[in-house]
Structures are given as C-alpha cells and as structure tokens.
Amino acid sequence: MEDRYNVECCDASCIHDDIIQKVQQDLPDEDTLYDLTELFRIFGDSTRIRILYVLFEAEVCVCDIAELLGMTQSAISHQLRALKNARLVKSRREGKTVFYSLADDHVKTIIDQGLEHVSE
C-alpha cells in the first residue's frame, strides 16, 4: 500500500491536457469559491458550532442560548448575527422575543459530516 504522505512529483514538462481541461471545466468560479470559503470560516468558531448544536434540538431565544452556554446575551447575539448573515440560522419574532432556529437541514448535515470526519 502506498504511503499517502509520500507524494511523488511528476515530470513538470509533462502536461496532461485532458486532465487540465476537465478540472478547469468543473472548477467553480471565483465568486462561488469565495462564498464557500466564507461558509467554512463561519464554522471555524467553536461558539458558533455550540450555538448550532443548541439549535439542532430546539427553536430558542438568545437568553436560553446564553444560559445553556454560560455566555452573555450580547456575545450570543453577536454570533447569531454572523450565523444569520451566512444564512445558517433564521429567526422569527413572537411579541418582544425573537426565536432562532436552523435555516435548513443542510446545516445539520454539514456538522454531522464534519463530526464523522474528525471521529475517524
């Protein structure tokens, strides 16, 4: 079995036009790659991940999340704003209270796949 960390370089003068053409055809445009990078940047904060785990279980308000995570409402609101801007969470108002929930099932799928990957 080949050692996956021992990568051999090919002859730099040998260009595989068919591979280059296929990859260029399938490579997303720069705007899409930027958006994807920003999405993964949002997942790069453990507080935001913890908030998402809370939202996996229930639709909750800022004060409930703050109590569950032992943080200030201000800190939670700041993180929720980032998650909402990334379209990962949504909100609804009921009187003076705003409740937050996951925007869609993709959010849980992304987290579950990441957790599966780090658990291997």
Structural class: mainly alpha
Strand order of the largest sheet: 1-3-2
Distance between the termini: 19 Å
What is the CA-based Rg, rounded? 20 Å
Element order, helices and strands? HHHEHHEEH
Strand content: 5-15%
Give the strand tally. 3
How would you name the oligomeric state of the polypeptide chains in this document? Answer: single chain
Shape: elongated
- Can you give the mean pLDDT? 90
* Model regions low in confidence, pLDDT < 50 over at least 5 residues: none
What percent of the residues sit in helical stretches (DSSP H or I)? Answer: 55-70%
User: Biggest sheet, open or closed, and with what strands and sense?
Assistant: 3 strands, antiparallel
> DSSP helix count?
6
Characteristics of this structure?
mainly alpha, 120 residues, three-stranded antiparallel β-sheet
Topology:
Blueprint: H1 17-26, H2 30-42, H3 46-57, E1 60-61, H4 62-69, H5 73-85, E2 89-94, E3 97-102, H6 105-119
Antiparallel strand pairs: 1-3, 2-3
Question: What's the short version?
Answer:
The protein is mainly α and about 120 residues long.
